[in-house]
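We store chain and fold; example below:
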Amino acid sequence: MLQDSLPGPELFIVGLTVSDAVRPKVTAILDGEQGLGIDECALVSRRLARRIEEAYGEEASYTLEVTSPGADQPLTDPRQYVRHVGRTLSLKLADGTEKTGTLEAVEAGGIQLAETVKEKNKKKTLPAVLLPFETIQEAKVVISFK
């Protein structure tokens, strides 16, 4: 099981894909409450490669990639939100609406978002409201170079 390979409970799997090719490519996308560094990726890669070799033999032909989600990738796991408290998120909700605002807090069932709206050419921040995770279709961190 891959979870056994993760160095500590702070890392978790965000995505796992296996391409359908002559030489399959296994891509494991991991994240952590404090982010994910290259050392953790290397450790998981070595452990995962060892497990694949144990299960399929040393002659198995595959490519293995262990990585973290890029800065432009959507947040897909509720645990990913925690380290982004205080940052600006862009959300697409299940009802088709879009919201942008500051992530104020993360709760068991959702996030507290202080939405930023334009009002007469001025930006106004509304009081934070709870948005349940199941209503969030896509969430991305807004990258700012200030």
